[in-house]
Amino acid sequence: MSDLRLVIFDVDGTLVDSQAHILAAMARAFDANGLPMPPREAVLQIVGLSLPVAMARLAPDHPQSVDPLVEAYKDAFASLRVAGDGAALSPLFPGAMEHLTRLAAEDFTLLGVATGKSRRGLTHLFEIHRIAQIFHTVQVADDHPSKPNPSMIEACLRETGVAPDRAVILGDTSFDIEMGRAAGIHAIGVSWGYHPADALRQAGARTVLDDFAALPAALAEVFEPA
């Protein structure tokens, strides 16, 4: 078991370009609750957080519970998914499928997911991209506190039996990096998501990738023998 390594992926902004889907669903949710849509930049900054936490940040002066916003967002997201082409709304980033497939074929590598998405949303995403079978551990917002709490990573480690020093999180937000660091694992940032590279480095990312082609070298550096 000590020779195994665990590579954990965030989803939105790391594996999947869901920006258009998220912004459209957020606009519908705020409109349904009679509230102005937050600025685009503000919405993208909360991607990765669990929905109640995200909505509380986007509507801090809202006098009522954020539950109606959360439910309206979930309904809007699902409606958009049904009405459109799911793969087109939330496509994999270039190179993601190639490198997921390559890593999954390695007998010394286990793959995991730690996402702020709901189980329903992630299940649909897995179905349209046909990637569910390659992950050995999958953690979603339904079962854990919001990032950057390390609960998701700790569950990944328990389920796979991999030691923290043999695990890494790949993510596009400071929440992902902080979560990984809090759990005592390695953290690699990606620059194509929702938080700038400088924020990822400040959060503790050991490196920030500009494309998936750089992933093999980054993993080799993380896991090379001392």
What do you see in this structure?
The protein has 226 residues and is an alpha/beta fold. The chain has helices at 19-32, 40-45, 51-58, 67-83, 86-89, 96-104, 119-129, 151-160, 174-182, 197-203, 215-223, and strands spanning 5-9, 109-114, 137-139, 167-171, 186-190, 207-209. The chain has a 6-stranded parallel β-sheet, with helices on both faces. Helix 9 runs parallel beside helix 10. The longest helix is centred in the first third of the chain and has 17 residues, at 67-83. The protein starts with a strand and ends with a helix.
Strands ordered across the widest β-sheet: 3-2-1-4-5-6
State the helical fraction: 40-55%
**Helix count?**
11
Number of strands: 6
**Mean pLDDT, as a whole number?**
93
Which structural category fits the helices and strands? alpha/beta
Which radius of gyration do the C-alpha atoms yield? 17 Å
| Beta-strand share of residues | 5-15%
N- and C-termini, Cα separation? 18 Å
How would a crystallographer describe the biggest sheet? 6 strands, parallel
Which features does this protein show?
226 residues; alpha/beta; six-stranded parallel sheet; 6 strands; 46% helix
